[in-house]
Amino acid sequence: MPKSRPSPLWFLLLLPYLGLLIVGLYNRAAPDLFGFPFFYWYQLAWVPITSVLIYLVYRSLPDDE
Amino acid sequence: MTSELDYPAIAVFVFFFLLVTVMGFVAAKWRRPATLAHIDEWGLGGRQFGTWITWFLVGGDFYTAYTVIAVPALVYGVGAYGFFALPYTIIVYPFVFAVMPLLWRRAKDGAHVTAADIVHDQYQSRGLELAVALTGMIATMPYIALQLIGMAAVIKALGLTGEIPLVLAFLVLALYTYSSGLRAPALIAFVKDIMIYIVVLVAVAFIPLKLGGYGAIFSAADEAFKAKGSGGILLAPSQYIPYATLAFGSALAAFMYPHTLTGIFASKSAQTIRKNAMLLPAYTLLLGLIALLGYMGYAAHIKVTSNNDVVPMLFKTLFPGWFAGFAFAAIGIGALVPAAVMSIGAANLFTRNVWKAYVDPNISHAGEAKVAKITSIAVKVGALLVILFLPTQFALDLQLLGGLWILQTFPAVVFGLFTNWFRAPALLAGWASGLAVGTYFSWMDGLKPLHTLVFGDTKITLYVGLLALVLNIVVTLAVNALLAQRKPVISTAE
């Protein structure tokens, strides 16, 4: 299989690192959601977001099975 | 904690325990191979696990029983800081997605069983192979011991005293792992994970109803931390870097452990692993909710002597005996899956990279399987003895150091997937310096995960494992650059 250039979509996978490792971004109580302070629901929200980002890259890859 | 026997809870617990014991032995016949006397079959389940089996297996293996006990215990003890397990188990997946399919491909193409096999194949260095293998084995031992601590916590909550129940549970585990290999935890993981999902979904739906909603739970925790004068439901600014570096360092270390890699190598294909990187975060959501059980402990006004009792106590206080028993069974069985995979991972390393490399190079496939089976028992007995005869703190300290050590194998295992520039002596020098300096710092700090660097007036406190990894990489690059200058082409290997 010829190697093609990696898709620029791979950069999407850096977003969870930026969003979660810059702690000052989200260490706050407000706004809260369903009683959860921002600190908690913001980090929980990154779980589905990360799955979707990985899916976007996954879709761009050739099936090598 | 009360030591009264809780009969409905014990009955439910024993029922599920017997169920998985039968499954553990029957697993040898599941997707039956021509022979189990081959390390690919015993130690990797035949390298044929598809998306769902891998999801249950890696999920059951990575999010361990100890996690269910220890993460809420840490959150109960210190608040927001204990939540670092959440970003950790999110950012690990982009890494798994990008790197693990490449590692799987190497293992598949070379018929490798362990990370140390792959390292040996790439660098042709017995020294580097042994470094990776020994680090993996030593880091895994305390991890198995921790699973026993998790199991001991639920056995205690059932009102059972003495060490006999724990010894019995582990004996059963050792026997079916011996006979069925990786198929046993893979099959049991289905039951365990479904039970854990039920327990957590019920807990996060019903406990807030009883305690006045999530808002009330967070307020109760906030007040308790203020009264205590330490911790809090938000981080102090001084905790930002520790929080981020612990999450990042742990994420890089997570898939260097033999048990997580065993799950990877047992997958059917690279696509299986990619799909799992997408689907495994479901467990992270669960972990985030489990962590909040720590705060629910404050809202429920439970009293505990040890933070590890928060989760068992919460279930005993808020739920009827039979459901508490179901929850404890989920946690107890939750200890069996990772303990089995960990002992298999360590046994594979010993067999391939110590026994085959140094004792019997011409060993047959059947011989390999036999050595691995016996080693898996030895590893578990070792962990049991540690828990029975040494203070619990010993296992916890060793687990902390184990994380630091396993992280030092990262350059040797991962760099070679992307470049052929690195040479074994450089990687070995980096590994040794990261290990030595990291252990020294940690030791001087009283076996704490955080180390404070002082540059004049500036102080930076960060995860010592990550600090050691940075040093490791710097040394590797420097030594490699020197070697590359002197010997531009030829490999320096044996």
Can you put this structure into words, describing what you see?
The complex is a heterodimer of chains A (65) and B (494). Chain A has helices spanning 15-21, 38-60. With 65 residues, chain A is mainly α. Chain A has one domain. The longest helix of chain A has 23 residues, at 38-60. The termini of chain A are close together. The mean pLDDT of chain A is 88. Chain B has 494 residues and is an all-alpha fold. In chain B, 74% of the residues lie in helices and 2% in strands. Chain B has helices at residues 7-26, 39-42, 51-62, 65-78, 85-110, 115-123, 126-157, 164-180, 183-211, 213-228, 240-254, 258-265, 270-279, 281-291, 293-299, 310-318, 321-359, 365-389, 392-407, 410-414, 424-444, 464-486, and strands at 450-455, 458-463. Chain B has a two-stranded antiparallel sheet with strand order 1-2. Classes of the chains: A mainly alpha (65), B mainly alpha (494). The A-B interface holds A 10, 13-14, 16-17, 20-24, 27-29, 32, 34-37, 39-40, 43-44, 46-48, 50-51, 53-55, 57-58, 61, 63-65 and B 80, 83, 86-87, 90-91, 93-94, 97-98, 208, 213-218, 233-235, 237, 239-241, 243-244, 247-248, 269-271, 274-275, 277-279, 281-282, 284-285, 288, 292.
Write the layout of secondary structure elements.
The complex is a heterodimer of chains A (65) and B (494).
Chain A: H1 15-21, H2 38-60
Helix pairs in contact in A: 1-2
Chain B: H1 7-26, H2 39-42, H3 51-62, H4 65-78, H5 85-110, H6 115-123, H7 126-157, H8 164-180, H9 183-211, H10 213-228, H11 240-254, H12 258-265, H13 270-279, H14 281-291, H15 293-299, H16 310-318, H17 321-359, H18 365-389, H19 392-407, H20 410-414, H21 424-444, E1 450-455, E2 458-463, H22 464-486
Antiparallel strand pairs in B: 1-2
